[in-house]
Amino acid sequence: MRMSLKVNGQAIETEISPISRLSGFLRDVLGLTGVKEGCCEGECGACTVLLDGQPVDSCLMLAFQAAGREITTIEGLCGSGINDVQQAFLKMGAVQCGYCTPGMVLAAEGLLLANPSPGEAEIRHALAGNICRCTGFETIVQAIATAAAARQGAGR
Predict the structure, then answer these.
(1) What is the pLDDT of residue 47?
(2) Is 48 exposed, middle or buried, given 0-12, 13-18 or 19+ CB atoms closer than 10 A?
(3) pLDDT value for 110
(4) 10: which strand partners?
(5) Dist CA 23 CA 106 (whole Å)
(6) DSSP class of residue 60?
(7) Which of 69, 103, 148, 149 is within CB 3.0–4.6 Å of 48 for a Cys-Cys bond?
(8) pTM for this prediction
(9) Rounded average pLDDT over 77-102
(10) Of 51, 77, 61, 71, which is closest to residue 10 (Cα–Cα)?
């Protein structure tokens, strides 16, 4: 089937199998390997992308469900350099093996777009669909709080 969508700011017109998962389409067809496939069941959050600004598990969506929508992957979030959320992850030591990091960063970005000043409970709730086995969540929560505070200070 034919579909049009926007990925990382670029309009895409493509032919897609009706049974292709969005995660596979992004990784295998578009080469956006920042989208990780961990569990393929919506449990780990490694495949998190922003769909019209909202975090979604791309392994649970069929690619055609994104037709006419806008997708942001970690590659699109950082553009030509790392963004403030990624910088906060580095500063707070919230990155170890890195497998979960793209999904965590996109979940954080989705939260901060919806709620620029989240409390700790809101941050933890936003991360509930993401698993990290290396860092624990304390430094990740601190990184998101740091990014939120920096954005508030910068007037974003």
Answers:
(1) 97
(2) buried
(3) 97
(4) 7
(5) 14
(6) G
(7) 103
(8) 0.94
(9) 90
(10) 71
Specify the amino acid at residue 108.
A
Residue type, 121: A
Secondary structure (DSSP) of 118-130: --HHHHHHHTTT-
Structural contact between residues 6 and 50, judged by C-beta atoms closer than 8 angstroms: no
Residue with token string 């508030």: 152
Strand-pairing partners, residue 4, are 13
* Torsional sign, CA 140, 145, 150, 151: positive
Q: Which residue has the tokens 């998190």?
A: 48
Q: In what order do the strands lie in the sheet with 2-7?
A: 10-15, 2-7, 70-72, 48-51, 54-57
> Does residue 140 register a pLDDT over 90?
yes
Element (H, E) at 107: helix 101-114
